[in-house]
Amino acid sequence: SKKAFKSILAITIGTTLTIGSISASAQDVNSRIIRFGYGLNQDSKQGRAVQTFTEEVNRLSDGKFKVKSFANALLGNEIQMQNALIGGAQEMMITSTSSLIGIDKKFAIWDLPFMFKDGPEADKVLDGKFGQAMLDGLEKHGVVGLVYWENGFRDLTNSKRPIKTMDDLNSVKLRVMQNPMYLELFNQMGANAIPMAFSELFTALETGAVDGQENPYSTIQSSKFYEVQKYLSQTHHVYSPWVMLISKPFWDKLSNDEKTIIKKAAVISREAERKDSREQAEKSLAFLKTKMEVNSITPEEMDKMKASAKIVIDAQAKELGQDLLDQFFAAIKEAKSK
Ligand code: TF8
């Protein structure tokens, strides 16, 4: 009868809805707390993307996973956090690939100067076979690499003078990331490069312990470097990625369903972060122009900087092996052709 059909329909719909809403709990998903550390402040593209990740993990696990995020290097600087992940004292973090070289020196490859034309070109190499192989190589060192985010093209700021030529870099005390490639790159260009953790940088700029630094526009804005720096020079010397890491001891405890949740949320956060980063770059530059003296570099001077950088690239070939460099260059070539 009509009535019986209706009630069967009601039961069917009811069951379907129930199954839909309990799907995450029907899986092998346990209650977990994930401590997630990062270096920038909450009101930065990094902070916003960590928030996206937090919400996605919460949604996909039906609230069973709780991500507790710690901004401003509250859990330590990047190197300290990496070690905490390896030891299992912290679950997750986002780090610059640059500071990972203490764990896997191959990661210096991403910081080779003047490699990428734009973000989408870098995405292809990072998300493709080459980038994945680099992530796979981390596991034996005690961390699992999930996805790359965009830190972005790096530009120079300082408080001494506009940097228009390499000569202008002379005797500028420039903070660089803790990676010998940067040390050599800027010393080669005439600066006095000083490696330092990002968490110490604002104070060092404020007190004059260093004169300058290099980071993407968005970070110069969100970390308020414009308050203690007068000049911004658009060198765009390196395209710098971030990488999302999870502690290997923690990862090994997770069920496959749990790993899938983390992986899905990581990819969603990556897409959101890159979009935000690319929109923010323009806005940050416009903002910084109201606060700082901004100059571009002429093509002739750019060529000189690139020639100087070439020496550093050749030195890295010795350090990392020509093989790896060739694979990297091939991946870039392929990305350019697509
Ligand atoms: C640097 C990096 C940092 C980021 C951030 C702390 O200059 O670009 O801004 O890695 O996660 O140290």
Can you offer a commentary on this structure?
This protein is an alpha/beta fold and 338 residues long. It has two domains: 166 residues, D-Maltodextrin-Binding Protein, domain 2 (3-Layer(aba) Sandwich); 131 residues, Bacterial extracellular solute-binding protein, family 7 (D-Maltodextrin-Binding Protein, domain 2), CATH 3.40.190. It is 49% helix and 18% strand. It contains twelve helices and eleven strands. The strands form three sheets. A five-stranded mixed β-sheet has the order 2-1-3-10-4. Strands 8-5-9-11 form a four-stranded mixed β-sheet. The protein has a two-stranded parallel ribbon with strand order 6-7. Helix 6 links the parallel strand 6 and strand 7. Helix 4 packs across helix 12 and helix 6 packs antiparallel against helix 11. The radius of gyration is 23 Å and the shape is globular. The site of (2R,3S,4S,5S)-2,3,4,5-tetrahydroxyhexanoic acid has 11 residues, from loops.
Measured as a percent range, the helix fraction is 40-55%
The major pleated sheet works out as:
5 strands, mixed
Shape descriptor reads globular
Q: Find the CATH superfamily of the largest domain.
A: Bacterial extracellular solute-binding protein, family 7
**How many strands appear in the DSSP assignment?**
11
- CATH uppermost class of the largest domain: Alpha Beta
| N-C termini distance | 61 Å
Largest beta sheet: what is the strand line-up? Answer: 2-1-3-10-4
Q: Under the CATH scheme, which architecture of the largest domain would be assigned?
A: 3-Layer(aba) Sandwich
Secondary-structure-based class equals: alpha/beta
Task: List the total number of helices.
Answer: 12
**How many domains make up the coordinates?**
2
Whole-number average pLDDT? 93
Radius of gyration (Å): 23 Å
> Which regions are unreliable across 5 or more consecutive residues at pLDDT < 50?
11-22
Q: What is the element string, with H for helices and E for strands?
A: HEHEHEHHEEEHEHEHEEHHEHH
